[in-house]
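Same chain as my last thread, 867 residues:
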Amino acid sequence: MLVPLSWLLEYASLPEPVDPIEVARRLTAVGLEIEGLEHVGEDISGVVVARVLEIEELTEFKKPIRYCKVTTGAAASDEHEVICGAANFVVGDLVALALPGASLPGGFEIAARRAYGRLSNGMICSAAELAIGDDHSGIMVLSPDAPLGSDFIEYAGLRDVVFDVNVTPDKGHALSVRGMARELASAYAVGYTDPAEVAGGVGPDDAPNPEVYQARIADPTACDRFALREVRGIDPDRPTPLRMRIRLARAGMRSVSLAVDVTNYLMLELGQPMHAFDRSRLSGPIVVRRGADGEKLETLDHVVRQLDPDDILITDSSGPISMAGTMGGLATEVNEESTDLVIEAAHFSAVGTARMSRRHRLFSEASARFERGVDYELPVRASAKAAVMLAELGGGSVVAGYSLVTAPIEPVRILISDDLPDRVAGVEYGPEVVVRRLREVGCSVSIDGSKLEVRPPSWRPDLTDPNDLAEEVIRLEGYDRVGVAMPRATAGKGRTATQRLRIAIARALAGAGYVEVISSPFGAAEDFDRMQLPADDVRRRAVRLANPISDKEPLMRSSLLPSLFKVAVRNIGRGFADLALFETGQVFRVRGSGAGFADGLTAAPVLAVDHGPSKDEEALLDVALPDQPRLVGCVLTGKFEAAGWWGDGRQADLYDAIEAAREVLRTSRVPYTVRSGQKEPWHPGRCAEFVVDGSSSSSSSSSSEAGLGDESVQSVVLGYAGELHPRVITAFRLPPRTCAMELDLAAIERLAAAQPPEQAPVISGYPVAIQDVALVVDDSVPAADVQAALVDGAASVAPAGAPSLLEDVRLFDVYTGEQTGEGRRSLAYALRFRAPDRTLTDEEVAVARDAAVAEAAARTGAVLRSG
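reply #2:
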């Protein structure tokens, strides 16, 4: 919001001299973000008030030129001849004259110059040339009572300081001169005059009058206050006063007409948006209601809008005439012929107005105020002030009284302990300070011992609970009083084991060539269809946001993959075709069974901030919150190994995605097994499933190189990796053969925490014995099962209590062909044998190898391949 300092000083009695920098500092200290300040009018000089004496029309040129004689006083020396191209003024009008030597905004210097065969000693100025408006069409004609010959800068109040204030959504009361001046007066501890209290026309005789245009509220959830007043017989040609036009321009609003300017001016001053209707264009009583199917309205911006049944509308017997609190309709707008006006001031639903403005992408100064919350007691006073100003400035008369429709509003009553601000901030304020500050805000405070009963003022709808009041005290007393203490880590402590694991996993993936990204936590229902998820998939049980940032993504993500796919597509579109991306982050899934979206969850309790939650409170929070497991995912596309002088590089494939999962599990030291899997969105024949079961810790280590196999019993699935299904690739517009991985990092962290402390490996000084065996098995036999049998077989011949001689087993070749027979394949393994305390004999190695082969034959039907 742009606000001139002079406007604030009308209601906040700051001591002279006023330092704008200090004003900005103090406003910032109470929570108003000052983004900048500008000294305006400082670069203007030499402009005076002059009267037009004569006008000579020069007709010999292509465009109309006027040679004018003007005067700035009674003496002959005060007369000047000036060339002007505007035609909107006549002899006798008072104008702003820039004399030779004057300076205008932008460093434009005025000098006597010859043009059109005449000498021009100055320039008659328009509003645009003085930077107080954007009207280039004509000269600025001043009021007849403007003092002739006076300094125009002083007369018009051009020199000012304009603050650019970012009013945060929780401080809607400050989105006006009224609220900001209140904050400024509080910051300086000086007197404050409420501009709403000096509203003309509000007195003991001001009461409802049936002769004023009548109104009705059809939906109290849309509007609970609606006031109308009438002004009749105004002169539509009356100009807006100069000072009002200048203030509107300083605040970033253009001057339109007297009626529009007055309502805009009071909206900026009081924070109450208002609208003026042409009474002659209204028909039947005014009704505030929700929209109906098929209704349309052409708004003031000449756009015909299709209305929604949830829109809040002001209507008459002809239908909608305004989108409440957002923009008026074209059919009832005030124009250059309007003489009788109906002034509307209301209190519309903040949520309803916000949704309507976003639904229609129609954001206005009025909607910005309504959606932050306005003073629900202000419509009567604001409309009275508007009516009186319009009557005085427009030469009309105010119809006595008003029309008012109200719905009951339950007053807010807050009970608070007088030491709550002390406990929240850790600062001792004392009861007297707490009560004084709350009353300074405008609250009514009743004291009962150490308990306070507080009733917030109508202009502070944001004050609803004790912590809001504590924040007001802390804010006004100064955040700088709240001490700063850096938390200290307990001696000998540092990152937790879980934190160290997460960092290690991220470093491992980064070391493997992956780039970490942070993708959007939001998604859409269409993502589930693109991923080919079945109807009962747990990932479809997403949490729906009550107020999403984008209507296109109203859900919290339940998988990392859709967001990663979108990041990949965005990068590919910008020329980065070779990608290896990874992310670790939380996903959100509704608890319980069944499919479908969660339209809402159990409301979470609002907990105190002066102590940690109890176990019961934590249980309530757990019930209200969705499951939030942490996952790790990656996506690969293009070349995984870059091309160069060394060769063509290598395309990323499913084995790279599988290796990324292995890298995570190796880093976490969680025993696992890899087997063939089938899970959307992966290709059913090119998908690996990573599981943990009771046998995995003994039969498969984190460094194992097991192949793809079938399911084992009683397993816990950690995740999947492989190539994406072609339909998924097409749906997300990914390149062909894109691969991905996603693991349950939360489960991995739990399993890693249960692992025994990592021990440094014992390095034997004795030689290794390597035996290669090739086993022929049916194609349906998983390589992991064969490997597990070899491990168990070798261990079976070790003496009781002694370690197995088989140090490692690695699959190094898979062969299919005529020698193996149809439906069979050969798996070649390298078996490494070593004893920790001696050199193995050939006989010991042979016994262990034969036992391993025998166990594989017994469990999988493997036959030792010869030749």
